[in-house]
Amino acid sequence: MTPMLPTDSNAVLRPATLPAFLRMRFADYCILGKVRISVLVLIVTAIGFCLGSTGPVNLALLIHTLIGTCLVAISANTLNQFIERDLDRLMIRTADRPIPAGRLTPLEALTFGTICGIVGSAYLVLFVNLWAASLAGATILLYLFAYTPLKRVTAWNTWVGAVPGALPPLIGFAAAHRGLTALAWMLFAVLFIWQLPHFFAIAWMYREDYARGGYRMLATVDPSGRSTRWQTLALSVMLVAISLLPVTSRYVSVAAGVGILVAGAAMIAAALVMSRRLTRETARRVLLASVIYLPIVMMLYLLGRVAS
C-alpha cells in the first residue's frame, strides 16, 4: 500500500514518493477524462470518418481527427465532474472520484478540462476542418450547459444528453467528407436512440444513488419502474429499426442488415426480459447487451459499406 503524507481535512492526499505520486496523478486524470468512455467515442468517430470517406481513408487526417476529438471528450468529462463535484460526494458510485475524494483540487480539474477543450477545438480547426471543430464545440456546450444542469430539473435530461452523445460519428464523418449527408444523420439517429435504453438500465441499477444526489432520472421520478420497462423495450425495438436504415437506403450491404437483425434480436430479448421482470440483474443484462450491440452494428456498417 502506498504511504500517504499527513494532511489536514481539506488537503489533497499525496503519496510519499514521487513515482507513486505521478502514477496516482496520472490515474486520477484518466478518471477525470473517463478514458474508457472516451475510447468508445473515438471508435464511433473513426467509423464515422471511414463511412464519410469517398475514397481511400486519409490515415493522417483520421489521426488528427481522433486526437482533437479525444481532447474534446476528455474536456467535457472533466468539466462535468468539476461542475458536479458537490453532488458526486453524495453518491456511493462517484464519491471516490478524484475531486470529491480530495486527490485533485477543483482548480486543477477546471484548468485541465479547459485546456483540453481549447487545445482540442483549436487542433481540429488547424488540422482538420471547421465542420469537425464546430461539432466538437457543440458537444462540449450541450453536454455542460444543457444536459448537466437538466439532470436535477427533469427526467428528460437523458434525451437532451443523448444529443451531444450522438455527435462523435458526425465529427468523424464531417472531418472526412467536409459536410454531412443522410448517412451521417442516420449514424446520429442510431447513437441517439442507443443511449436511451443504455442509460435507462444504468439509472435503474443505481436509482438509490441518483436519488441521494437529487438527480431526476426516469428511475427516480417513477420508482414503480413502469416507465423504465416500456420505454426501454420500445426504444430497443426502435433502435433496431433505425439501425436498418443504412441498409434499406442502400448505403451498406444486405449482409450487414442480416447481422444487425441478429444483434438486434439479442438486444430486444434482453429488453423484453427486463420489461417483464425489472430487477438490477435484468437491467444489467440490458446494459451489457447495449454495450455489445453498438460496436457490432458500427463494424457491420463499415464492412457492409465496403461490400456494397
Describe the structure.
The protein is built from 15 helices and no strands. α2 runs antiparallel to α3, α3 runs parallel beside α6 and α12 runs antiparallel to α14. The relative contact order is 0.10. With 308 residues, it is mostly helical. The radius of gyration is 20 Å and the shape is globular. The longest helix has 28 residues.
Cα-to-Cα separation, first versus last residue: 56 Å
Number of helices: 15
Number of strands: 0
Write the element-wise H/E pattern from the N-terminal end onward.
HHHHHHHHHHHHHHH
Specify the biggest β-sheet. Answer: none
Q: What structural class results from the helix and strand content?
A: mainly alpha
CA-atom Rg in angstroms: 20 Å
* Helix residue percentage: over 70%
Overall pLDDT level? 92
Low-confidence stretches: 1-11
Overall shape: it is: globular
- As a percent range, the share of strand residues is under 5%
Keyword list:
308 residues; mainly alpha; 75% helix; globular; 15 helices
Explain briefly what this protein structure is.
The protein is 75% helix and 0% strand. The protein has 308 residues and is an all-alpha fold.
